Structures are given as C-alpha cells and as structure tokens.
Amino acid sequence: MRPKNLEKEQAIRTVALDIIAKEGLENLSMQKLAKAANVSPRTIYIKYENKEDFLVKLFINEVLEPYEQAVLKDFSEQMDFADGVKKIWMNTFQYLKNNRPAFAIIQYSKSSLLLNKAYQQQNIQQGQFFAPIHRFIAANIKAGTIKNFHFDVYRAMIFPVLLELVSEYFDYTERPKQIITEKVLLECCATVIKGIMK
Amino acid sequence: MRPKNLEKEQAIRTVALDIIAKEGLENLSMQKLAKAANVSPRTIYIKYENKEDFLVKLFINEVLEPYEQAVLKDFSEQMDFADGVKKIWMNTFQYLKNNRPAFAIIQYSKSSLLLNKAYQQQNIQQGQFFAPIHRFIAANIKAGTIKNFHFDVYRAMIFPVLLELVSEYFDYTERPKQIITEKVLLECCATVIKGIMK
DNA sequence: GTTGTAAGTAAATAAACGTTTACTTATTTT
DNA sequence: AAAATAAGTAAACGTTTATTTACTTACAAC
C-alpha cells in the first residue's frame, strides 16, 4: 500500500490558514486551496469528509489547541491575581502576534456560524476550554480578591480588549508608527486589573 | 415614467439584514434575497451596482449610521468622564439589544474583508465616525482625569468588552438564566471606568 | 387616451463552487 | 517480481453563484 505523504497533508493545512489570513475565509475555495497546495482536490477529501469537516478540524487542531496551550504556558491557578492575569495577557499577545493566520481565523469564529458552532462544541467536549482560568477566577472570587461576577463576564472584561489590541497591532504594522508597544500593553493590562480588583 | 416602489426597496434591505442575522452573511445570496423579498434579482441591481455595493451601502446606511446616532444620543463631550462613558455604554447596549441584525453585521465587519474596508473608509470620509468620543477622551487626557493613551487604545478598552457582553446577552436569551442584566452591565461599566480613571 | 420611459419580471448566462469519477502511481506484502 | 491496495491525479459532475438579457408593466407627461 502506498503510504500517505504527510508533507502534502501539512501543506494543505498551512496553505489554508495562509489563504484565510490573506484573502479571507469567504475567499477560500477547495479548488483554490488544492491548486495553491499543489495537490488534487481529491487529496483533501482523503482525509476530510467535506469542506465543513476540514474547516472545523483545521480550526480546532491547528488553531484552538495550540492557542490554548500558548495562553496557559507557565500559568498556574495558584498565582497571585494580578500576576496570573498578566501572564495570560502577555502569553496571548505573544502567540497571536506571531500567528496572524490563527488570529484571523479566531476573529472569523466570532461571526461565522460554522466556526462558532465548532468552538462551542469544543468548549463542551473538553469540559472547559479554559478550565484553569475558570478555576483561577473562582478561587479569587472565593478569596475576596475580586467581585462575584459570572465567569463569562470576566472573560468579556479581559480577552476582547486584548484581541482588539492585537487587531490594532496588526493594523499599525503597516503604518509609520506602531502604537501597540509592550509598554502600552502592560499598562493596559494593569488598567484592566485595577478595575477588576477590589 | 413608472415610479420606484419604495416598499420593495425597503423590503430588500430589511430581508437582507434578517437573513444575515439568522443564516449568516456567508449564506446570503442575491437570488435567495430576491426570492425572500418577493422581487426579481434584477430589481436589486436597479439601485445597487453589484453585491459588494449593496452590502457596503446596507452596512453603512442601515447599520453604522443609526448605530452611531444611537450611541451618541444625549451624550455631550462636556460631560463628566464617568457619566459620559456610562451614557455611551448604556446607549450602545440598548441599541444593539433591540437590533440583533445590526449586531450580527457589526460582528461580521470585524473579520469580513469587504465590510472591514467599508468601515475604515466610512471612518476616514466622515472625519471620524466617533469624533465626539475622540474629543471627549482628548479633553479628559488634557484635564488629567485619565492616562495619556492613544484613542485607539481607549476604544479597545471600552467597546469590545461591551460588544462581548451583548454577544453573551443574546447567547443567554435562549437559556434558562440570563446573566447579562442591567445591574451587571452597570457594574461592568463602573469596573472599566475605575480602571481607566487616575 | 396615447406615448415614452424607467421599474420590474422570468428566464437565461457564464463562471465558480463543492465533490466525484475514472484512472495512474508508489509502496508494502507475498 | 508480481499482486494488492490505498494515495494521488486530471478531468468532469451537477449545483449554485452573481449578473444580464429580453420582455412586460405602470405611471407621468403630453
């Protein structure tokens, strides 16, 4: 039996992410992808049932999982609240800054019905995608460090700000002056923490 | 000369927003839209050059402009910082809560290359889309009420949080317990303000 | 009331889409 | 080295897409 060419499999995935980042998810067609990855359309369908299956697996395996790992790197639930948030904050920024395709597809997942569904399902199946952060927040509420808001509210107060700053970081990389510097980022983080802490 | 049927024009726009909210922008085709609005495809092309032209005008005229007006209702640059932010915050929430299609299309504009471009251009042509808020922030920096961050950074610290809360508000309307209440919203706003103010 | 004309329709167009068919290739097993 | 078989290809499939063509309708102007 002829063995699978893993390079081709990888090419399909990386080229797909590249097209999404450069031309948008709305402009990714299976034929375009096959051509760009130098394979026959049929080759994609050996591994993936259909386009939906491909996109969902691409999103979860190539983006969400590495993203979660990067966000939680060197983070511990036992950390001091401010330190913990700062760690997550800078981890997230570092990862997204160096993975524009990942950032692009994450942005799409906020509106695309398909990717949104995939995200919700992943969140349910894996228990919680950001379970350690959930427990971190819960512990700090119990300890009285922070107010008793629902976890989803805390999520809303931390991540969207940061994602918007990443978006601005990319916008400004094509302009004379970058305003999203590491200093600004840390000050923003401190601002958010100051608001949240009792 | 036969006069234009304004009802049909309006039907096209409202049906389009409805499809985007319910089935997603990725599932809006000109033929589906024409059928749902009970007109011939050709009728859409009397007023709009092509699909892109239609979507951009829909976004700007039916969504962004009413959105800006609603956000700035009863807001004044001379307001106290906390009062001003609270006013904008609650205006935005009220508007989006009652205009799910508007919220849906605004979410799409964060990722869709087409709508994103439209938003940027509108922002440039109209001077600044949220010019009064820009001046409000600038005045408060000058007065020393808040830190000297770039306007885009302040924008990132206020609006994305709120949009995420609106997203969660809609998520929770289909569940037993709504967590995004007016009380929570006001407390979140206070939290954000507390962080930002010196 | 006839006429001019833009509004509007139904059906058709070509291009692009996701996916499949019919076939060839490369490798392991015998 | 021949057989077996999944990997892979090129070309084609039937649909759906955005847009247009050829035609009809409804009203203002005369």
TrEMBL record, chains A, B:
Q: Which InterPro entries match?
A: Homeodomain-like_sf, HTH-type_Tx_Regulator, HTH_TetR
Is NADP a UniProt keyword of this protein? no
Record feature DNA-binding region, as residue ranges: 29-48
Which segments constitute the HTH tetR-type domain? 6-66
Recorded GO MF terms? DNA binding
- Any Pfam family from its record, for instance, is TetR_N
Its keywords, alphabetically, are: DNA-binding
* Protein name per its UniProtKB record: Transcriptional regulator, TetR family
Origin species, per record, is: Chitinophaga rupis
The beginning of the lineage is:
Bacteria, Pseudomonadati, Bacteroidota, Chitinophagia, Chitinophagales
